[in-house]
Amino acid sequence: MAKSTESNTQTLSRTPLYDLCSELKARMVEFSGWEMPVQYTSISTEHEAVRTKAGMFDISHMGKFIAQGHDLIEKIQYLVPSDLSSLEPGRAQYTVLLNSQGGIIDDFIFYRQSDDPLTNEARGFMIVNAATKANDKAWILSHLEASGVKFQDISDEKVLLAVQGPEAESYVQQFVKENLAAIGFFGHSDITVLEQPGFIARTGYTGEDGFEIMVDPSVGVELWRNLLNAGVTPCGLGARDTLRLEAAMALYGQDIDTETTPLEAGLSWLVHLDKKGEFIGRQVLETQKSEGVSKRLVGLEMLDRSIARHGYPVLSDGKVVGEITSGTKSPTLGKAIALAYVPKKLAKVGQKLEVEVRGKNYAAIVVKRPFYRKNREQGIGNRE
Hints:
It is a single chain. The chain is α+β, with helices and mostly antiparallel strands. About 20% of the residues lie in helices and about 35% in strands. It has 8 helices and 21 strands. The radius of gyration is 21 Å and the shape is globular.
């Protein structure tokens, strides 16, 4: 993979689509050690394209792992709180890696593939965050040692594109041989893209219908050009952030981290204590389940024109009770929205709070998440 020139004291990595992004005069920024496009035109324009039509993102910086082995599911089960035992080939599960304190090492998607036809070994993909890729790899390998499970890091070998929006299927279908309508939400399949082999999943990070497509770099370059010529809007990290926040999807390192558990983060729907056996962090989650959590991640809506940003204090009765983890003005709703951890007693919908913005306190209210909800029939919505 090509490298960029020196930026400050760090050499940033570039994806195989970097030159295509540069051709479109994208504004580039450093992100998790990568030189990535933050916007091409404007965040609001790109955001609207995804909500109303279709937008595409280069997410090739993300970690991509392959694992295979007779005991694969059993071994991965031990690392996550979710029950993967009933996951059928062609289906995927969003889940989290936990440490012994129940803290979240990373959130990722596990894609269960069909068993190897020669060895009958179970197979699966894991797509992890770019910033945590090295730590995730080390953590997973430390628990797979001497297990007979084969592990392969293909992060630098593949391009990953996300095409998101209500018209995503019709755009992508033009360049894929197989029928995409047959792939349900959180389904995935091997496909033929521009006459070449590829992998596609009906997953995303925007709250819209859409796909994530993994192909060889040369195919990725050609696919990007074809989608662009077909009318799909290129989108950067800025729109990706406003879209995911409207959908109340957590950003690792801000909304979730090693100091927060999935129960505190409102991810109780992926904790299956009654369906599976021992796993790392189980004891902590059992205690929290029985005794309750001390803090909760909540959605906030600002009641005036002020915008809450990451790190701003949250107050109740003049006292600091929490901190904003993510915040922006929602392009879709026209309101300032945010996520924040507050004490459980202040986490109920309708609770009035305040946020300190540049030395002044402004009114806010706890609201139901997600802030933006796509048609539930498409399987996209609040999972709490």
